[in-house]
Amino acid sequence: MTKTISILGSTGSIGRQTLDVAEQLGLQVAALTAHASIERMEEQARRFRPRLAVLTDEAAARDLTVRLADTGTKVLGGPQGLEEAAALPEADTIVTAVVGMVGLRPTLTAIREKKRIALANKETLVCAGELVMDAADTYGAEIIPVDSEHSAIFQCLQGCRDRREIRRLILTCSGGPFYGMTCEEVGKMTRADALRHPNWTMGPKITVDCATLMNKGLEVIEAMRLYRLPLEQVSVVIHRQSIVHSLVEYWDGAVLAQLGTPDMRLPIRYAMTYPARGESLAKPLDLTACPPLTFAAPDRATFPCLHLAEEAAAEGGTACAILNGANEEAVRLFLQERIGFYDISHLTAKARSAVSVVQKPSLEDILEADAAARRCVLGD
To answer: Which residues form the 1-deoxy-D-xylulose 5-phosphate reductoisomerase N-terminal domain (predicted)?
Structure first.
């Protein structure tokens, strides 16, 4: 079981909920990191007294240094601070809750230090999954997924003797706020509309990804990497109620599912306490009060980002890094209200066509593919 954690991305939704779990379980906090959330970081640092606080925005870090001068917390600025936080010797578990490619290098650093990785940063596995999993094997680092879907699969696989027994992984998807709409209706949706997720409270980037279904596409790629399965053995089903978090189907016809309320503290807690289960203060799932549980096929025509992700997964190499980098930039433009909703998929498809794919890439190849995709989206 985890005793001391470092949280990369402590001021975001997953980071804040991780601190709630840490407090309940009595865990020590060695490091906290964020981008530029000065006031929230100061509040967290004073409450949890970490050895290290990092803000990747260097101006914000200078401000934080002054604010925390009366504490024993060291403050660092810049992205390199994430790697120092990931390598602190007293932290046995690194929670990677940052959004985007910024999580890749510190995750690899934590792996080299043989930490347990509580992984909530899907881009790390999407863009460099084979490198990351190979590194984890080499150094003996443990990767425990925190995403609700991958945690569900992880839990359903606990009794699996041999991965060859798996017929397929079934990822559930809420369908986002635009489920059931036509292409014409979806094309009129705004930033505010896309941020109204029906079941989960998350950061803006991942919430938009849920609206486009790109989030589920990225999770398909992540599942392939985590469990070393081909695309043909990973499928998606729409489940509006977000009660069944994902399923595993075995070759004998048995299907195992993990059910629970839509509360991220459950998978976070399991990543901290695995292989044990820590007591939760959350209200348990009441099956008699649940709405009817429904399942449907995803609409890839109305939500083309899912298909784009599956195409990238099939191609392999740097295709997934190109997909992810382009999507990140396009979502950023959408959140700034500079482009429309369907421009996200159009710009991502454009980058996928324009940027060459490298098979069996190095880390440098992956980073260059990401950068090239972003330049394509921005027209540079």
So the answer is: 5-129
pLDDT one-digit tens code per residue, 127-174 = 999 999 999 999 999 999 999 999 999 999 998 989 999 999 999 999
In a domain, 377, yes or no: no
168 shares a domain with 140: no
239 with 269, same domain: the answer is yes
List residues forming the annotated binding site for Mn(2+).
147, 149, 219
**Within-domain flag for 60:** yes
Annotated binding residues for 1-deoxy-D-xylulose 5-phosphate, as ranges? 122, 148-149, 174, 197, 215-216, 219
What's the domain range around 293? 152-372
CATH number of domain containing 45: 3.40.50.720
Annotated binding site for NADPH: 11-14, 121, 123, 203
Task: Tell me whether residue 379 is in a domain.
Answer: no
- Amino acid letter for position 165: E
Nearest CA among 30, 137, 133 for reference residue 91:
30
Q: Can you give the pTM of this predicted structure?
A: 0.93
The string of pLDDT tens digits covering residues 88-113 is 999 999 999 998 888 999 999 999 99
